Amino acid sequence: MKTYDIVIVGGGPAGLAAAVAAKEAGNDSILILERDHELGGILNQCIHNGFGLHTFKEELTGPEYAYRFIKQVLDLGIEYKLNTMVMDIAADKTVTAMNREDGMFQIPAKAVILAMGCRERPRGALNIPGYRPAGIFSAGTAQRLVNIEGYMPGREVVILGSGDIGLIMARRMTLEGAKVKVVAELMPYSGGLKRNIVQCLDDYGIPLKLSHTVVDIEGKDHVTAVTIAEVGPDRKPIPGTEIRYTCDTLLLSCGLIPENELSRSAGVKMSPVTSGPVVNESLETNIPGVFACGNVLHVHDLVDYVSEEAKRAGANAAKFVKEGEVKSGEVIELLATDGARYTVPSTINVDRMDDLLTVRFRVGEVFKNSYVSVFFDDERVMHNKKRIMAPGEMEQVILQKTKLQESKPKKITIKIEKED
After folding, report:
1. φ and ψ at 49, to 5 degrees?
2. Does the pLDDT of residue 152 top 80, yes or no?
């Protein structure tokens, strides 16, 4: 097989943006490997609008947003292989993949960009009691059936979980003529964006029941009814709060998990909080020359942020191929405490960072009228008030290279401080 400087695993929004940025940074030896039969990833089935406001300053559907990047890849002449499954990434960055035309093949790469995206949490991880009849789908599977395959999963629907895909499918199923009875959410807050709650549930009169979960599924061959119940602070059902809904479909929208089996087998260090790789300011993992971006790194709420992050990974991969590993410079550790759950990146080498570095994180609960505070060692250098912060929406702080060079902190801490 032909050798390439940069191999990108995944041809979704992250992989496409990374490829374009690497090419624009001066590297002409790039290959995208995509397991599906077309580029674009999950965006191809996201036919609703709301994409591209940050990147293109206009509102696009998922396929339109994907096409903007696919066109750039085609115009720049970047190579790609479809229907290709990556089996292994070795420590020396040799990528083993297979497809129908080439069989199993290996590509020695100088840099690898992980852009495999994420998958939905399966029913088996949710501990739902009851039979296992037909009519239970993940929200993403239902989305593909309706938007791409042209099939309706059912007519009377209950949705468990208020992630963005679940909220969007509540609206989609309603528009296709189904009756969405209820959206139940285990947590006391929604896992989706506020705008999706308003546009997908409130506008269509679909009830959202927080602190509720499914306690029984009826039907042996096909779902006939679902019972939900309120849960207490221990997340266990409270007897006497059960509500039974007759339905023929149960959609599960209970969170997304980064698709990291390849990363783990390659020896990439993983974060127990995000289930994605631990990366530095260049979005480089603990393996020199292996970068990660998009939902494989941590689950994003906006695809615009995926593209922005992926461009950074692509440019840094091209820089790595050109200059090799840079070991000089002090490494600063980033810590998330007191309400902040994690940070991406986890470490910063000040010598290698850009003039401005965006650090993204999520909070662990709903905070109102609180502050995002940044500490250089023990000195508070940032104290920004936020009216509301929720786990469903990513937060960010921007660090300046000049300030880090002046202060020379050993560690940077991001925490949430409540109003006195």
Report:
1. -95, -175
2. yes
